[in-house]
């Protein structure tokens, strides 16, 4: 218990130490710094103008590398003259004094505040000011440009480079258009695939329908006559008459009633329900409508027993025709098709 209390007591301290450690790991010089003025050993000072000509600029990448250039800002563009890149080492001497080394060469550095530092070089103490705006808009591009331009391969070709905001915006627009065009191409490919798939399904359906018709026509006359007699016997049977009466009276059909209907239809039309299911992936409502059509139930009675409007039942039938055959058709045409499936 004492150990637990001890851990709870020191945990805020541990968290605090961890937080301080993270704060200490933050980069002190990250970003773009512009030279503002220099102080000479003689006491003279020199202000670096931000309006006329180039100004010296340093881009610190963390606290381990600095990229040097001269630049001028003109409207929406920046003109950059790459100069050099150096490895940086920082040794904190305390009291705000930091021993700053560029490629091993010590140069005293003092941090005035978060946005102002001084670096002494060859007796001249230069003041640098952080520019967050240039850092956010151009920092990464300027750093990469200087890194490439001052590499050993390109060092003999140092020249001015212009970074244009308009060109960057145009590049962003072009980049966006490329993604839009790629999206359109992908959508078209998907659409073509869907069309091809639908056409394949239609051909398969038409083949099934031809097989149904050919199968019926190929039966000998005695077989067709026998099927007609079975069909007539069913529609005059007491079971059918009782079922028909219940439906026309609007009595709700229960699950066992639908099982009984499927049983009746399989006795008269053995392959009807399986072929119906193979035509199209129907909803329960669509399937029930088709069963009642096959039982020769009138549309108004189908609507009553299924608790739907007559217009809804009509829409279901015409929609089924269009989905199965691939072109528009009326509710009556769907009824005729369902009644024509004789197996």
Tally of extended strands? 10
CATH architecture tag of the largest domain:
Beta Barrel
Largest sheet data? 8 strands, antiparallel, barrel
The domain count comes to 2
Question: Class of the largest domain, according to the CATH hierarchy?
Answer: Mainly Beta
Which strand-content bin applies to the residues? 15-25%
Cα shape: rod-shaped
Structure commentary:
- 55% of the residues lie in helices and 23% in strands.
- The protein is built from eleven helices and ten strands.
- The protein has helices spanning 2-24, 132-149, 165-218, 221-235, 238-248, 255-268, 272-279, 284-294, 299-305, 310-325, 331-340, and strands at 31-39, 45-47, 55-61, 65-74, 77-94, 97-102, 105-113, 116-121, 124-130, 161-164.
- It has an eight-stranded antiparallel barrel.
- It starts with a helix and ends with a helix.
- The model is unreliable at 2-25 (pLDDT under 50).
């Amino acid at each position: 218990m004492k150990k637990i209390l001890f851990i709870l007591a020191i945990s805020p301290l541990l968290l605090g130490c961890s937080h301080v450690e993270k704060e200490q790991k933050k980069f002190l010089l990250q970003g773009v710094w512009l030279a503002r003025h220099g102080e000479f050993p003689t006491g003279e000072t020199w202000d670096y103008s931000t309006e006329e000509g180039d100004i010296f600029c340093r881009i610190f990448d963390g606290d381990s590398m600095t990229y040097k250039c001269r630049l001028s800002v003109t409207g929406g563009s920046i003109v950059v003259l790459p100069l050099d890149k150096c490895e940086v080492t920082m040794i904190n001497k305390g009291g705000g004094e930091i021993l700053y080394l560029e490629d091993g060469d010590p140069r005293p550095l003092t941090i005035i505040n978060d946005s102002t530092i001084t670096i002494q070089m060859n007796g001249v103490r230069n003041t640098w000011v952080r520019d967050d705006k240039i850092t956010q808009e151009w920092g990464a591009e300027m750093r990469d440009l200087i890194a490439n331009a001052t590499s050993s391969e390109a060092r003999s070709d140092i020249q001015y480079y212009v970074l244009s905001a308009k060109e960057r915006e145009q590049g962003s627009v072009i980049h966006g258009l490329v993604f839009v065009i790629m999206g359109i191409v992908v959508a078209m490919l998907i659409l073509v695939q869907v069309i091809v798939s639908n056409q394949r399904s239609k051909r398969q359906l038409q083949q099934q329908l031809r097989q149904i018709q050919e199968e019926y026509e190929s039966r000998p006359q005695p077989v067709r006559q026998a099927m007609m007699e079975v069909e007539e016997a069913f529609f005059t049977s007491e079971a059918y008459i009782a079922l028909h009466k219940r439906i026309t009276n609007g009595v709700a059909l229960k699950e066992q009633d639908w099982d009984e209907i499927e049983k009746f239809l399989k006795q008269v039309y053995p392959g009807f329900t399986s072929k119906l299911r193979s035509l199209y992936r129907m909803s329960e409502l669509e399937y029930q409508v088709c069963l009642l059509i096959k039982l020769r139930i009138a549309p108004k009675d189908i609507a009553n027993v299924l608790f739907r409007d007559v217009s809804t039942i009509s829409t279901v039938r015409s929609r089924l025709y269009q989905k199965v055959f691939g072109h528009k058709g009326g509710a009556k045409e769907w009824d005729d098709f369902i009644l024509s499936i004789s197996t």
